[in-house]
Each structure stands twice: as C-alpha cells, then as structure tokens.
Amino acid sequence: MKRKWYDWRHVYLWLVFLLLYAPIFYLIFYSFNQGTTMTHFSGFSWQHYAELFADTRMIEIVLDTLLIALLSSLIATIIGTLGALAIYGIKKVWLKNSILSLNNILMVSPDVIIGASFLIFFTFLGLRLGFSSVLLSHIAFSIPIVVLMVLPRLSEMNHSLIDAATDLGATNFQVLTHVIFPFITPGILTGYFMAFTYSLDDFAVTFFVTGNGFETLSVEIYARARQGISLEVNALSALMFLFSLLLIGGYYFIEQYNNSKKARRRNRTEARLIK
C-alpha cells in the first residue's frame, strides 16, 4: 500500500512538471522553425535568432530590463537585509508582529493595486515616469521578499554565538560582519535571486509606472502580442529560459561551495580538538 502511494506521488509530480514546462518547450521548439507560425514546423533554422540580434530596439529593452532587475534587487537586498536585522532586534512582540503584518500585506496585495498606487504617488510627487519610476517601484515591492528570506535565517541563528563573540571583546560591527552576516548569507542570496526574478518578469506594476519611451521586456512583449506575436519572441523566450537556468546553476554551485567550505572548516576544528 505504501508503494502505491509512493508511485502516485511521482506520477502527480511528473504531471505538474509537464504542465509547467510543456508550454516553455513548445515555445523553444518553434523558435527554430523556418516558418513564421507555431502551427506547422517547416524546417530547422536560426532565422528568428538572427532577427532577434538584428532588432536593436529589442536588445536595448532586454538590457534595460536586466539593468532594472540587477539594480532593484541589489538595493532591495541591502535595504531588506537591514530591515530584517532591525525587525529581529525588536523585543516587543506586538510591535514585531505589526511590522511583519505590514510587510506581508505588500506580498499578498494585487499587483494592479500596487501599480495604480505607485502611479498616483509618482504623479502626486511630479516624478516623470520612466527609468526612475520603474526602478523605485521594483525596489519597493522587492524589499518584503528579501525580508521574508532573511528573517528565517536570523531566527535559526543561535544567540549564544553573538554572546560568545561579545564576551571575547568583539565590537558590534565585528559581530555583524564576522558572526551574523556569514550565517545569514544563504538567506541574503536567496532573497537577491528571488527579488531579481520578480523584477525580471513583472508586468502589472511596470505597466502602470513606465513611460516616456522607456519599456521593459514584459511590457514590450505585451505590446507586440496585440499585433500578433512573431517567432522572434520565441527565440527571446528560449534565451531568457537559458539565462534563468544559468542563474539557478550558479546559485546551486555557490551553495555547494559554501557548504563544502563549512564542512572543511568543521573538520579542521574537530581535528584540532582531537589533537
């Protein structure tokens, strides 16, 4: 009976992966189509990739999108990490829970509401819509993500490590840089990659706050879809999917390197104790 349940779980898992990845591989498959539609594969060709790299407007939009994602995730990671440290240090339970609730509200709020709110706010301030408005809005909705990624690592940290460092004469800055940051680094990296991903594929918020000729990839694809999607978009989707795989692979190898480094350090410590 247990064996059947185990097998059914695997079938369900494969069905979920199939539903998630089948449309992506469908797009990638037809990006190599010699024709111009996704109804008939007429032959293998790199034609649409050549058209993509010849489209200077699309390349510029891709670079702008990556720049927004990199800057917003970096700034949001810095602010979110400091915010998580501040929340962790709050002693009053009601105050901590109140701030966490406010943080979580931004996570569950509809993107349309957030985008409209930013549009009204930027218009009230007289801020010109474009690069700066998109960057600020992406930083704002990425900060709660980083906070939620870093806080669990802080909660897992043994407070006796901080007490021991303080007893040994470490300053607050040394405790922060030599004890706390090394322990929460996996949470910080996870928060950065999550913020980067959210920024990269955001459409609803960006659609409200973009303007003056500045567009991100999601908004441009939406605009082109209304005119009929060309297979150039398929080629771009394939490259973006490959880029995502490289990011995930890089994060995996960084995690493996950190874990092996910790294991070697632990082994050296145990060897010294045995001697």
From TrEMBL:
This is ABC transporter permease. It is a multi-pass membrane protein. Keywords: Cell membrane, Membrane, Transmembrane, Transmembrane helix, Transport. The keyword Heme does not apply. Belongs to the binding-protein-dependent transport system permease family. CysTW subfamily. CDD domains: TM_PBP2. It is found in: Cell membrane. The chain crosses the membrane at residues 12-32, 66-90, 102-125, 131-154, 175-197, 235-254. It comes from Loigolactobacillus zhaoyuanensis. Residues 62-252 form the ABC transmembrane type-1 domain.
